[in-house]
Design goal:
Number of helices of chain B: 18
Helix content of chain A: 55-70%
Largest sheet of chain B: 7 strands, mixed
Largest sheet of chain A: 2 strands, parallel
Structural class of chain A: mainly alpha
Shape of chain B: elongated
Number of strands of chain B: 31
Distance between the termini of chain B: 37 Å
Shape of chain A: flat
Radius of gyration of chain A: 35 Å
Distance between the termini of chain A: 26 Å
Number of strands of chain A: 2
Number of helices of chain A: 46
Structural class of chain B: alpha/beta
Oligomer: heterodimer
CATH superfamily of the largest domain in chain B: Ribonuclease Z/Hydroxyacylglutathione hydrolase-like
Strand content of chain A: under 5%
Largest interface: A-B, 34 and 30 residues
Chain lengths: 887, 637
């Protein structure tokens, strides 16, 4: 510990121990604990106590807990725990009889202070810290703390309850480590007493009839199997799994969510991977016992497991697909009615029936033959499966249940879609649900991925939502009534539809997708959020539509779609809802970026009113829309799609060029977003050598930098530096650091050329801007400027080497000006600069040092323990003026 | 209790409720869709219209269908729920011998008057040189082209009423306020409640002491300009008659307003004009409010908005003075003071201008591109006809239909081929089926009665089970010209007892908590109120001197027989008989009680739960003895 801190510590301890003193806020106490923890981790706690007896004195008032505020009491409990984590210090505190009085019956336990959740939480955390060695276990056993922890599992405060569970896991783990020599006994009966006690408690809870108790036990086990992968955990699972299996017998299954968590954490545990402990059977059984909404997360977890029997994967996937199967069945013309069961249908039953798969899994030890799995399941041919009424029952009890289950299913499948595909995609052309593949080491999505049925289910759901689907059964009619106009399902389905764009499949399905997307984009009833999702999904589908072999233009199909979409877009751009206008513009920007060069698209776009409307939206009252319009106009202009309209209203008025218009926005717009967007467009234009820019680049850069330097928004200034960097690169070449491992040093440019090259920067006042930014009060701006100047210095190294250190009058005045700037007085401009002076100043500035200082976090000066102690004392009024307090 | 259904149009209802002794007509909407069978009436002679092949200008407009189901002169009162539902009023009050009273709120009457005025004005300013009615003959009608030949009951179509008839009809209206209780002949009480649909629009409660019928017609739960709907007062209804739901259940009004604004902006930006065929009141207020917020953001500040209607000025002004009928937000503005509707500001800043007709000032102010709101939404008469002719040829222009009352395709038929764009964004703020099911869950009526159209999905979307009323027990449906016996019987009537009579009653407790007393009184009924008055004193024996007439009024007061209660315990009865000297008594059990046989006296006493018969052969003395014995076991009061 620093001597300064040591000096301040007694005073602080006195403040903390004094109930009349106002207590510093929680963050200070947390920081203080962090600091003690660092000290304890780095050295001996015992030594710390001996050198700072005030700490022991501080811990003593706990004996009269009623005098202390709960926060300080909790702090002291945690501090004692941190200190007692080291065995020698533990013994030291034990001798003073301090620990039993802190954590035992004599302490706050059971007193008035105990009613504060903070105190209970501090008690648990203190114990958690100190339980690091066998002596601590003895202490726990004697103090009876374990029983208190048991009762705290059901605490009214969720934080306390959860921490109690974690503490139990911690104690169990530690007590099992003690007899670490040799393998753990296969009989929990031979385990250490403490472990036996905890396991006994868990067993008892699992047998309990009250769901909260079962939940507590399951949560403790989940935490344990997730964090502890010692061999004894397998013994424990073998011991407890019959009790867990018993839970599945009950109806309804209690604490289903916690059970799912437990089973998944067990399945993920590396020590439990062998199938000997019957885990796969339990999982299969659970899948078939839980309700669809509960089984969904389990099925997803199973499919994400690295290793898992094929049959279980099939069953899990079937569970996930069940609701969608139900939707498809409800809307397709079913040739087979319930009761009629041809052989083909039987096959279909096995495909989507969890029961059938479950039996296969259990009966054959997880090795069903492929012959039982479906090979073909064309959409439209499923009907009369045994499970359909079952799922329909899950979907139909209420609108909320139906919507919830569908949204969950779609979200789960969406998570699976991007996983590695297990086998070469069969394209889903046959429309088959998958035959799961062999387990591999990476989590994979089921293969073949039933792309076509999934797509058709997503489209059907969207059709049910907008009322255009034709149900063929009562289930369908009910679904239609539930889903009509449901925004939540629409959003989930559109998200899912978007991710499905990665696959390939029959053209007619793709046609359906574009048709439904167009319906949504056209419909006046689409809510703004739905519309945004529809735009996003559309973009994904357009991007993934294959390019025709001839190259060049868009695929005819997508082109046709775009042509139909373009008349819709103007209406969206005129919408009274700003978010609709915004998402319309974003969509436009993306499409132009992607297809701006394609003749067909260009033709259709130019024939529409879109470019003109976009230009008008530069003056939209909503700043987000203006920003998006700026981006869109920048993109249109880059692609040569911006045509200055012959304004009908004001034939005489001079039309401003887009560049002027954007500069106007940059200098006058009251909101930051449009100005940032303008800077991004300008940077892109400079990169792409946009015609308007290339005409007079220097003039352009000078104007932009002049405006940007005055901007109050730091992101605009930072973007200005980005633009300056692009300008530098274009003039001087790429930064050498781009290839740090290059063998040859960059060829030094001849000095005369460098001086010549620096002239334009002086003319556009780039240095003025960069130096100003160097001392910017916003750190990212200063950092960026620092990088830029370092790049410049590297580029001009040869020049300055040859010139030697310059100390002309220019340099002196420049340095003086910079010093004034650094001090905060940025009133005076630098005036005209000479390249030589700039190079000299660049050499003299400690840019590396500055970069180092800026790389520290902004509060590094105030983060020292000394500062913390000073702050806390100042709050208590012990120190006079608090200079460090800048918050 | 019966409901006579005179209209088949669910949003233009006309029902007659017979309840207790009153005959109440609920609304009298005018179905004007038959006008679509006629050619438009142009303000300026249109060579195109008059040169259309075959069928030249026919006679005026004909409306109205009322059947012979009920004699309308017997209608006691008419309750009006909103101004759209009173358009047939002159036909009923002026031509049927109606002598009753019409009840409506003040805004309903004022705006209803404006709508009628506009209608009459539209029709009368283009007088027809000739009129034809022979075609209504069924034999001739058959030969006419479709759809006229398929039109039903053309004989019931009527010419438009005159302003005089309107004034006379309106003079029969009595103004009411929300929650005001109006007694009808002492038999029932009617109360208007806010329905949230339009200025002054109401639902009605019709109740007696023991029955409550709610009439819900054209209600809205959306936050637009009128006072919000009063749902709480509809609770505990025996019957809820539900009419006037949204005509476009699949269109969400918010989405439609967005669509309206976008299309309007797109057209105007391209230099085109926008025509909005509309009624002079109602949704137009909301549209103007939306545009007020939208035009600046859409850069349309320089575009003139024209509102052309003979009643445009009155409509805009009236909307601003009915503060108490407006939603809370608008009401509070009045106290600032500010005009509740922002169209005042549009008018002030000259962005919105209104004219009574095309002629006059409008023609000199007219500037394009512009937006014109004008009537009539059927496109058959009114200034809209002229604009359709004027702008129909250019694809730059757009006509936007916002009123859902007419099929826009049929409305456009006589103007085809049409180059101008047509946008259909019907805005109907009335209840949709989701809202109805919530409402019914909330107010829980015992029975729901509604037009049959609401009990099945729309024919074009037969799978949309969500587009129908779903309630338990299932709603009773009616169709035009049907008489519905409402499914509940009146069981009680309230009768008052005069204090002095009540004073004289001596209740006797016959079961714990139940006391009875006999009442002898005169039931006096007047104005459907029933009062029990003390009976007149029995006529004095010396009353012979009095005039005979006096006693005529006094009903015969017979000596009252006491009422009996209790039961006869057979064993004790037999013992009593024996004590009184009867012997040879035999008791038989029957299904209903007992028979006591006095064999010696050849007499039979039949004792049942609620009656006792003594059957003896011409021995009155014996009978009386036995009767007295029986009476001893019973309580008398």
């Amino acid at each position: 510990m620093d001597p300064e801190c040591s000096q301040l510590l007694p005073a602080l301890c006195a403040v903390l121990a004094d109930p009349r003193q106002p207590v510093a806020d929680d963050t200070c106490l947390e920081k203080l604990l962090d600091w003690f923890k660092t000290i304890a981790d780095a050295g001996s706690s015992l030594l710390l106590l001996q050198e700072n007896p005030c700490l022991v004195t501080l811990l003593c008032p706990v004996l009269k807990p009623q005098d202390l505020s709960p926060r300080v009491l909790a702090f002291l409990l945690r501090l004692a725990g941190i200190l007692a984590a080291q065995e020698d210090c533990f013994q030291h505190l034990q001798q003073g009889d301090l620990l039993p009085r802190l954590f035992g019956e004599a302490g706050p336990l059971g007193g008035a202070a105990w009613t504060a959740p903070t105190v209970r939480s501090g008690w648990i955390q203190g114990l958690c810290s100190l339980t690091q060695h066998p002596s601590a276990l003895c202490f726990l056993a004697h103090s009876g703390a374990v029983d208190t922890i048991f009762s705290l599992q059901g605490d009214s405060s969720l934080f306390v309850a959860s921490a109690a569970g974690q503490l139990l896991v911690h104690i169990l783990g530690l007590s099992m480590q003690a007899p670490a020599e040799g393998h753990p006994s296969l009989q929990p009966a031979h385990w250490p007493a403490c472990a036996q006690k905890i396991v006994g408690h868990i067993e008892e809870s699992l047998r309990a009839t009250a769901t909260p108790q079962v939940t507590q036990a399951l949560n403790v086990l989940t935490t344990m199997f997730s964090h502890c992968h010692d061999p004894w955990t397998q013994v424990l699972w073998v011991h407890l799994s019959p009790l867990v299996a018993c839970l599945l017998e009950k109806d309804p299954v209690p604490a289903a969510h916690s059970l799912v968590d437990l089973l998944l954490s067990v399945a993920r545990s590396p020590v439990l991977s062998s199938s000997s402990c019957g885990l796969w059977d339990t999982l299969a059984q659970t899948l078939s016992r839980l309700r669809a909404s509960q089984a969904g997360p389990l099925a997803l977890g199973i499919l994400k497991l690295q290793e898992c029997p094929k049959a279980l994967r099939a069953q899990a996937f079937a569970v996930l697909l069940q609701p969608l199967t139900c939707v498809l069945e409800a809307t397709t013309q079913a040739p087979g009615l319930p009761g009629s069961s041809g052989p083909g249908l039987q096959c279909g039953v096995a495909a989507i029936g969890p029961v059938a798969s479950s039996e296969a899994c259990a009966g054959r030890g997880g090795d069903p033959t492929d012959g039982e799995l479906p090979l073909a399941w064309p959409p439209g041919s499923v009907g009369g499966t045994a499970d359909a009424p079952l799922t329909a029952g899950m979907l139909l009890p209420s609108k909320a249940a139906c919507v919830g289950l569908l949204c969950q299913t779609l979200a789960h499948l969406e998570l699976l879609q991007p996983l590695v595909s297990g086998a070469p995609a069969c394209g889903g052309g046959g429309g088959a649900w998958p035959a799961p593949t062999l387990p591999l080491s990476q989590p994979q999505r089921p293969s073949p991925w039933p792309w076509a049925p999934l797509l058709s289910a997503a489209v059907t759901i969207l059709r049910l939502c907008n009322g255009s689907a034709t149900p063929t059964s009562d289930t369908g009619t009910h679904l239609c009534a539930f889903l009509a106009g449901c925004v939540r399902v629409q959003r989930a389905a559109l998200d899912f539809l978007g991710t499905l764009s990665q696959g390939t499949g029959p053209q007619e399905l793709v046609t359906q997708v574009f048709a439904i997307l167009l319906e949504y984009l056209t419909s006046p009833d689409s809510s703004p959020t739905v519309l945004k999702k529809a735009f996003q999904a559309t973009l994904q589908w357009l991007q993934s539509s294959p390019k025709p072999s001839g190259g060049g233009d868009l695929e005819p199909h997508a082109q046709l779609f775009l042509r139909e979409l373009l008349p819709v877009l103007p209406k969206r751009l005129c919408s009274p809802c700003w978010d609709v206008r915004d998402s319309g513009l974003e969509f436009l920007t993306q499409t132009v970026r992607r297809w701006g060069g394609q003749a067909g698209f260009r033709h259709a776009l130019l024939a529409s009113e879109v470019p003109e409307l976009t230009e008008q939206l530069l003056r939209d009252p909503e700043s987000y829309v203006r920003a998006s319009a700026v981006a869109a106009m920048g993109q249109l202009s880059s692609r040569g799609l911006h045509i200055i309209p012959a304004s009908p209203g004001h034939p005489g008025a001079q039309q401003k060029s887009l560049l002027e218009e954007l500069l106007h926005i940059l200098s006058t717009d009251s909101e930051g977003f449009p100005r940032r967007a303008v800077m991004q467009v300008f940077t892109q234009w400079l990169r792409d050598s946009h015609a308007d820019v290339a005409a007079d680049t220097e003039h352009f850069v000078a104007r932009v930098l002049r405006v940007a330097s005055q901007d109050l928004d730091w992101e605009v200034r930072a973007q200005g530096l980005e633009l300056a960097l692009v300008f530098l690169e274009q003039t001087l070449g790429q930064p050498s650091s781009s290839c740090p491992y290059a063998m040859t040093p960059p060829a030094a440019a001849p000095p005369s050329l460098v001086a010549q090259a620096l002239q334009p920067f002086c003319r556009v006042q780039l240095f003025d801007f960069a130096f100003r930014a160097l001392f910017d009060c916003d750190r990212p701006v200063a950092q960026k400027s620092c990088d830029l100047l370092l790049f410049l210095r590297a580029k001009t190294a040869s020049y300055s080497d040859q010139q030697g250190s310059s100390s002309g009058p220019d340099v002196a005045s420049l340095e003086a000006a910079l010093q004034r700037w650094q001090a905060g007085d940025q009133g005076q401009p630098l005036g005209d600069l000479e390249p030589e002076a700039v190079v000299a100043v660049l050499r003299s500035l400690d840019l590396e040092g500055l970069r180092g200082a800026l790389a520290e976090s902004s509060d590094h000066a105030e983060q020292s323990p000394l500062s913390l102690l000073q702050d806390m004392l100042a709050t208590a009024g012990i120190l006079g003026e608090n200079e460090a307090d800048c918050y | 209790m019966k409901l006579y259904c005179l209209s088949g149009h669910p949003t233009l209802p006309c029902n007659v409720l017979k309840f207790k002794s009153t005959t109440i007509m609920l609304d009298c909407g005018l179905d004007m869709t038959s006008t679509l069978n006629f050619l438009p009436l142009p303000l300026v002679q249109s060579p195109r219209l008059s040169n259309l092949p075959g069928w030249s200008l026919k006679d005026g407009n004909a409306f109205l269908d009322k059947t012979e189901l009920i004699d309308l002169s017997t209608v006691d009162v008419i309750l009006i729920s909103n101004y759209h539902c009173m358009m047939a009023l002159p036909y009923i009050t002026e031509h049927t011998g109606f002598t009753g009273t019409v009840y409506a709120t003040e805004p309903t009457v004022q705006i209803g008057r404006l709508l009628m005025e506009e209608l009459v004005n539209f029709i009368e300013r283009v007088p027809k040189a000739q009129s034809a009615s022979l075609w209504k003959n069924k034999d001739i009608q058959r030969l006419l082209p479709s759809p006229l030949k398929d039109a039903v009951e053309v004989s019931t179509w009527r010419r438009c009423y005159t302003m005089q008839e309107v004034n006379s009809a309106l003079s029969k209206i009595q103004l009411v306020g929300y929650s005001q209780k109006i007694e009808l002949f002492g038999a029932v009480q009617v109360t208007p409640l806010s329905s949230g649909y339009a200025l002054g629009s109401s639902n009605w409660i019709i109740q007696s002491h023991y029955e409550k019928v709610s009439y819900v017609s054209g209600s809205s739960l959306l936050t637009t300009h009128p006072q919000p709907m009063d749902q709480a007062s509809l609770k505990n209804s025996d019957v809820l008659v539900l009419t006037g739901l949204t005509q476009i259940p699949t269109a969400n009004p918010d989405g439609m307003v967005g669509e309206f604004c976008s299309n309007l902006a797109l057209t105007v930006r391209n230099g085109g004009n926008v025509l909005v065929p509309c009624y002079p009141s109602g949704v137009i207020y909301d549209l103007l409010e939306c545009l007020y917020q939208y035009i600046d953001s859409a850069g349309l500040s320089n575009i003139p908005f024209y509102f052309i209607s003979p009643v445009a000025n009155s409509s805009l002004e009236f909307s601003q003075i009915f503060a108490e009928w407006l939603c809370h937000n608008k009401q509070t503005k009045v106290y600032l003071p500010e005009p509740p509707f922002p169209h005042a500001e549009l008018i002030q800043t000259n962005k919105l201008k209104h004219y009574p007709s095309l002629h006059g000032d409008f023609s000199s102010d007219f500037r394009q591109p512009c937006v014109v709101f004008t009537g009539h939404p059927s496109l058959r008469f009114g200034d809209v006809v002229h604009f359709m002719e004027l702008w129909g040829k250019s694809s730059l222009n757009t006509v936007i239909f916002t009123e859902p009352d007419f099929s826009y395709l049929e409305a456009l038929a006589p103007y085809q081929p049409l180059a101008m764009k047509c946008i259909y964004c019907p805005i109907d703020t009335r209840l949709n089926f989701i809202q109805v099911s919530k409402l019914l869950k909330e107010v829980q009526p015992l029975h729901v009665v509604c037009p049959e159209q609401y009990t099945q999905p729309p024919p074009a979307q037969s799978h949309r089970m969500d587009l129908m009323i779903d309630c338990q027990p299932p709603a009773m449906s009616y169709r035009r010209a049907e008489v519905l016996a409402l499914p509940f019987k009146r069981r009680y009537e309230k009768i008052e007892i005069m204090p002095e009579l009540a004073d004289s009653l001596v209740p006797m407790e016959i079961k714990p908590g139940i006391s009875l007393a006999t009442v002898s009184a005169v039931l006096h009924t007047k104005d459907n109120k029933h009062v029990l008055q003390p009976p007149p004193r029995p006529a004095q024996p010396a009353g012979g001197k009095k005039r005979k007439r006096g006693s005529d009024d006094i009903p015969d007061c017979k000596v009252l027989k006491p009422l009996l209660s209790g039961s006869i315990p057979v064993e004790q009865f037999v013992q009593a008989l024996e004590k009184h000297g009867f012997s040879d008594i035999k008791v038989e059990d029957t299904a209903k009680g007992h028979i006591v046989l006095l064999q010696e006296a050849e007499t039979l006493i039949q004792i049942e739960e609620d009656s006792t018969h003594i059957i003896c052969d011409n021995d009155e003395m014996l009978r009386v003895r036995l009767r007295d014995l029986v009476l001893k076991f019973l309580q008398k009061f």
